[in-house]
Amino acid sequence: MMAQLLASTVFLFLLLIFLVLFFIRHQSKVPYYRLTQEQCVTLLVKSVQGVLPEPEWHAFIGMTIRDDDALDALREQCLLIDEYGVKGTHLVNGRSCMLFNKKGVSQLEKLLDEWQHKSHYLI
Q1: CB atoms < 10 A from the CB of 51, how many?
Q2: Residue boundaries of the structural domains of the chain
Q3: What is the reported pTM?
Q4: 39-65: per-residue pLDDT in tens?
Q5: Residue 92 β-bridge partners
Q6: pLDDT (tens digit, 9 = 90+) per residue, 105-123?
Q7: What's residue 21's pLDDT?
Q8: Which branch of life, at top level (predicted)?
Q9: Helix%, strand%, coil% for the chain, nearest 5
Q10: Residues 56, 101: Cα–Cα separation, whole Å
């Protein structure tokens, strides 16, 4: 009886160690999406030009940027533009791209000018 209890305890302990090692090994392989200032500027350029794919826009405004407060503030500004400055979508080379109204384009141009000229911005 005592031997069975000891064997069960050792088995559970080894199982726990195996699970912890498995988690540690595979945790680093979890994909993540991290934006840079240059990627945000490219997104703004495409949006002003009217060639920004709709899924790219919605992916940007739909995610929270946890590692950079300034980029998340930009995302929130774009979220407001999405609410009041979107006219709809149009096809560009067979892809559905965002179409902004005059106010939306104006706000995007201001953001683009601000973010293009930010210097010494570290991500």
Answers
A1: 14
A2: 1-31, 37-116
A3: 0.70
A4: 999 999 999 999 999 999 999 998 888
A5: 95
A6: 999 999 999 998 876 555 4
A7: 85
A8: Bacteria
A9: 65, 10, 25
A10: 18
